[in-house]
Model the fold of this input.
Amino acid sequence: MAQLCFYFQLHQPYRLRNFSVFDLTESEKNYFVDDRNTNQAIFSKVAQKSYVPMLSLLYELTQEVPKFIFALSCSGIFLEQALAFEPRVIELIQQLVSTSQVELLSETYYHSLSSLYSLDEFVSQVRQHTRLIQKLFSVTPKVFRNTELIYSNDIAAKVAKLGFIGILTEGVERYLHGRSRAQLFISHSKPAIPVLLKHAQLSDDVAFRFSDKNWFEHPLTAEKYLYWLDSFLPGELINLFMDFETFGEHQWEDTGIFNFFKTVVHEASKRPDQTFVKPSVVAALPYLEILQHQQHLSPNPSTIYPTYDVPEPISWADVDRDLTAWRGNSLQHDTLRLIYSLEDKVLSSNDQKLIEDWRRLQTSDHFYYMCVKWSADGDVHKYFSPYDSPFEAYNRFSAVVADMESRLCHEHSS
Amino acid sequence: MDGIQQRVFMIGWEYPPHNSGGLGIACQGMTEALSQQNTQIYFTLPYLHPQAVTHMKVIHCQSDDSGQFRAAPPFSTYSSVNSAPIKFSSSTSPIELSSLAQSEMEHQVNEYAEKVLSESKKLSDDYSVVHAHDWMSFPAAMKIQANLGKPFIAHVHSTEFDRIPSGHGSHYIAHTEYMGLQQANKVIAVSHFTKKMLIDKYFVDPSKIVVVHNGVSPITPSLSSHFAANRPVIVFMGRLTAQKGAEYFIELANSVLQKIPEALFVVAGSGDQYHYLLLRNADQHLSASVLFTGFIRDRQREVLLDRADVFVMPSLSEPFGLVALEAAQRHTPVIVSTNSGVREIMSNSIQVDFWDINKMRDEIVKLITNQDYRQQVMRGQNENLKEATWERSAQGIRNVYHDLITGAQ
Done:
């Protein structure tokens, strides 16, 4: 029996409307609103299927099971859309936060890849996100979760310098070298930072495979899942990280996903040596030890905790857990290059609308839609994409960037 | 000039609004002008035409057991884009047809030939000449010629050697073209460029070939389009296949942008090179400078030709190139490949070898920066356009009818 650390991700991008060269006009425009209010429609649909019922269930569970604690992370643009389209989602999160059984994590406001492209922009977005969390929920996140759990030694150092006490990422085999992920790691960076590694198998059993009839473990009952959890030793740390939409959207209600989760929480809480933890609690002690080591008050934490050395960026996506979902082809490389090449010009324009548009274009989903990988990964990408093809995603995005460049040239050059 | 009435049995394959290339548009312009000049036309199509046509009699030659392939959407090379779904019962376009397996292609063409033959027999007293457009209709024309003894004109809008410049096109298509051209009593080529192709590649007797350039239908100047108002806009429009040279357009964009960084390039069309070209575009860091529209039609097409500051047609092999005339009609200076038919009647357009990127770049820079030069080119094009009418084409075609009917050589 072990410590269970649940974290659920809440995010919705601003999808682009159908934008082409014919829209490069002088008139005021909104890149993200189409005739059918697609973004609002999708948000409301998912709110009804997933956000509202699952947030309600989580609240119920906090009331029924006092020791049930977990973490949520909400992108800034998720919260913006919730405020605009489904305010009850915000109220439900507020209600949850007020129980003190929920920890909110930090991330980039725009769910961007800025950690890979611009330190200044990354820091701005993290701060903007913190401000919104403080404003809406009156708490300040202490643990960081990067877009799509993207992580490297370099990113760990940036996050540590920002003062966070821990960071979440994926446990990737090629950097674990056979070590168990069910333990706390520290980063290979200066300064170091405690690292919580997702338990991919147990997380994805729920997130991806729960209703997969071709999976030899199907159907996944709470009993079976608890049996698997029971095989861990006391003190081991099982990080169950998944998309919030797993509940009700990716796995529909009729698959039994809500009842499954409810039973798992209830039954786990009855096991004497099983506890729920949240990331800041797990990270607190090692964080202190790192600080003390810096002041030469304690031994090097790397003698106590295993080190997670990740020279090349990883993520929680696709089979290879790398970045190829967002930058695996030239469509993605060039549009990313373009968007970050505009940074100085956009920011010095002092045009708040332009800056916001530019930041919304940084959302990782835009590049994800341009992925041309196929087979199993391709199926997942297709499921998430609102466009007919990766090439259409590229065409829309390129036309919007072209429009933005024109705005920069003609409104701000003179 | 109305002249005496001539009656012709014309074998088509597509007709607006359903068309994917120049053939349907050419058939429309040509038949409208011919009917104005006292020509009675029976026009066959392999599908039920959705709109009323009054200037000629459209004969629907769909075979009875054809539901098998027409019930399904055409196997389309355009499937990668949002081309509007074809709602009406319609044929496979020539482009689509040539992408089918040979057996299916043969099946469609032979079915059509049988059906056309049976219709032609019913009308055999009502026409004196058979006029067949491109290879899809040649087998039908040959059957009529063999069965009824009617003289047959093969009208060549495009050959397999144009469509597949590498020379590795369909043997079946090239062979059908060859047979039709050899059997035809007369051959009409849409340009001297095509005539030369027919002589060199198909060994057609030069004395049998008459060149009749296409025309262009007048437009009602309507729209003023101002997108990208502050940037020079350079447009490519055509199928994205090796034939049309879009690869050279992207290379050209790269070159022009070094001189005019704010230039905006637009690639309109779709085809088998679509994805390849997008990736190539991104590879060259042109994502925000060269925009792709996918397949466009009607109004958007006009808007683009109208808005363009320069239109470029860098085709490797273009029998005619109607779109260059359409651009010129909208007061857009055009740069056309020397391997094109349209250059023969657009003597004042700018003519460059499709591979000569530097020359095309210099011309574009000059057209954009030098207003006098630009005006001069446009004035010249306007002069050329006065001659580029379907009336003129129809006269040429009627002369061929006349010669065949009277037995003149």
Remarks:
- Chain B touches chain A at residues 80, 82, 226-231, 262, 264, 266, 274-275, 278-279, 282-283, 285-289, 291-294, 300, 303-304 (CB under 8 Å).
- Residues 233-387 of chain B form a domain with the Rossmann fold fold (CATH 3.40.50.2000).
